């Protein structure tokens, strides 16, 4: 959804020649960097989930 939403906003921004504001910023986004950011977010969420699982000892409580 994030990638699709950015793509739609980029198309609209280019069609209507919006160069300033939020849509101007979105039209300048690079999908390469956006992909790296998405990977970093997924890795961080995985690490946080593992830490919460180990610290919270959910397996001992409900296992």
TrEMBL record:
- Per UniProt, which keywords does this protein have? Membrane, Transmembrane, Transmembrane helix
Q: Which residues cross the membrane?
A: 33-53
- Tell me the protein's name: HoxN/HupN/NixA family nickel/cobalt transporter
